[in-house]
# Entry
Amino acid sequence: MRETNFIIENNARHLWHPMAHPAEMQAHPPRIVNSGEGVEIVDIQGKKVLDAVGGLWNVNLGYSCEPVKKAIRDQLDELPYYSTFRGTTNSPLIELSYELAEWFKPDGLSRSFFTSGGSDSVETCLRLARQYHKVNGQPERTKFVALKKGYHGTHFGGASVNGNQNFRRNYEPLLPGVIHLPAPFTYRNPFNTTDGAEIAAAIGRLFEDEIAFQGADTIAALIVEPVLGAGGVIVPHETFLPLMREICDRHGILLIADEVITAFGRTGAWTGSRLWGVKPDMMSTAKAITNGYFPFGAVMISDKVAEAFESNKNSVGNIGHGYTYSGHPVGAAAALATLKETRKLDVAANAAARGEELLAGLKALQNKHELIGDVRGKGLMCAIELVSDRAKKSGAAKDVVQKVHDATYEAGVMVRTSGANVIMSPPLIVTAGDVQTILTALDAGLAAARA
Ligand SMILES: Cc1ncc(COP(=O)(O)O)c(C=O)c1O
# Structure
């Protein structure tokens, strides 16, 4: 490794960062994170902070998960790569497919298809949804329904069902035949109410109306996050997902649960679908499946969808989709170790308990700081929305949000900002003391922005 000065001088000079303007990155280079231990990270200046971002919603077990590191090291020695395209497979992958079928049994999902990350998993779900209907003799079912404010990664399919214009406008035209419904968002919605159940019912009516307009026999699938993450941690009313499931069932539309964030305990339940008592037809997962240590994802497939493909007798059922790194043996070994540790540590229970403490603490901060317009969360995915005027709900200025971020960091905690939202998704192994550390630092950050 080159010396520190070299690294600092070349920061953002020869690479473009995701989700950032290259000129802005050159003017204000990003923080250089050099190491991680437990729930903390250390930057190049040697400053240690608690990582309330959890990497990017993915380092659920923290940075020192030795069993996962060891599994990766051992697998690199044994077999660092081999393809899983037709004709070959590998042992850890077969074992992983068995473990995942057990893990997702309560969600009614029994088959897996492996990918290199969340966007790949979403793309796989969308493509398999269309193919499912072709296999079933309904080739005109090609359209997708999604939610505004939903986030589904950045492939063209994912961007097309994405509900935030930041990820769409500069890449248009996107896929035709995608319909967006309003998000189940109590703080901002077009229904002039803050009642979650009313909002859920209103979205249900719009969905039905759209189905009647488009023709049910043209719609392949509805894709939703059980708790909307990157869109600002939007927690739907408990009636929302069951209602969407029921409408999908009545019209032969598949339900895709995008659980790239929620699949392994983050909401306090083992999956977001289980949280709401719903069984999806397909589920996209990634991120915490390897604790973020290896780029990997899995699409989980229901018995109904599996049966259609597996009983197909012609080439329509042939899967013309997949990636060089689908079923990577090192990723599979990492995932096996991660699942074992995740279950052993019962992180879903900790996420539920610590999440309640974090949410209560954020609500207390809202009473203290005018800057906080709204507080939202479920388990260890929480957000505060910053406003310049509470009555008008006008979003806080960019420099104010940046100040909160920087001052919180100075006070010892890394948070993530997205628009006017401050998002927190710490590792699921945080202690009650860690939650207090996050709240104390955020309090200091909010106070500094007001000063
Ligand atoms: C719900 C959801 N779907 C898909 C993705 C895309 O995953 P990736 O960034 O691994 O491609 C994300 C990433 O945050 C996500 O939150």
